[in-house]
UniProtKB/TrEMBL annotation:
UniProt cross-references to PANTHER family, sorted A to Z: FUNGAL PROTEIN, PX DOMAIN-CONTAINING PROTEIN YPR097W
Lineage: Eukaryota, Fungi, Dikarya, Ascomycota, Pezizomycotina
Protein name, as recorded: A5bd3c5e-51db-44fe-932e-e7e64b224393
GO molecular function, one term: phosphatidylinositol binding
InterPro entries: LEC1-like (IPR047168), PX-associated (IPR024555)
């Protein structure tokens, strides 16, 4: 039965009336707030995933290409359907596995050889403490891996805006900051939407330096060094 409020601030039974707060519409986050939240969440998740590799069991729950320890009845390797490290698994499957040379490796390389190495490293319990005022081995490896993992994962999740495109073979003024930024943006777009990845692999096989690919790649390399 609905309680009604009288004129004196009491309900019909003479008890003090309860005033319910009016609903408040949730505030919409601004673009900068969404960007900050995205950075915080990816930072937390990537570092948590790297930390999880302290446990030797994590790698067997990683999912393809690393196998579970319980193969199928016919001896065929089985893979976890839900990865214990979804962001890291996405980086491996989207970027590393399709690379020329890597994609030609036999399946056993991943779920036998490399998986065995990772599990042995976890079982070794490498030092994570500060030893003689320097970072321990595990902490050094984890910090470096987390930084790379975080940057690449943000790129995969956040994506890149497709613009009208640039010409990496045009001339860029490497003494001009705006040209360096433009070269980086042009190179990034070609990496994501174009064929620059394959072209860089071909360049590495044929020439002594990747910067010989084009003036745009050379200027983009300068931008990365400065940053």
């Amino acid at each position: 039965m609905e309680t009604q409020r009288g004129d004196s601030g009491t309900d019909n039974a003479g008890r003090p009336a309860i005033t319910l707060p009016t609903s408040v519409a949730p505030e919409t986050l601004s673009s900068s707030q969404l960007h900050a939240l995205f950075d915080i969440l990816t930072h937390h998740e990537t570092y948590a995933e790297v930390e999880s590799f302290k446990d030797p069991r994590t790698i067997s729950e990683y999912g393809y290409p690393f196998a579970k320890h319980e193969p199928q009845s016919d001896g065929v390797p089985s893979f976890a359907s839900d990865s214990a490290a979804p962001l890291l698994a996405g980086v491996l499957r989207s970027i590393v596995l399709p690379c020329p040379g890597v994609r030609d490796l036999p399946a056993e390389f991943w779920h036998v050889r490399f998986q065995g190495i990772l599990e042995k490293l976890a079982e070794a319990e490498l030092s994570e403490s500060y030893d003689k005022a320097v970072l321990g081995i595990r902490k050094t490896l984890a910090t470096a891996a987390s930084a790379i993992h975080e940057a690449v994962s943000r790129g995969l999740l956040g994506g890149a805006e497709r613009r009208r495109g640039g010409n990496l073979h045009r001339e860029y003024d490497r003494s001009n900051a705006q040209d360096l930024v433009q070269a980086w943006e042009d190179a990034l777009e070609e990496l994501v939407f174009g064929d620059l990845v394959g072209e860089l692999f071909s360049c590495a096989a044929e020439k002594p330096s990747l910067e010989e690919h084009s003036p745009g790649v050379k200027a983009a390399a300068d931008y990365v060094i400065i940053q």
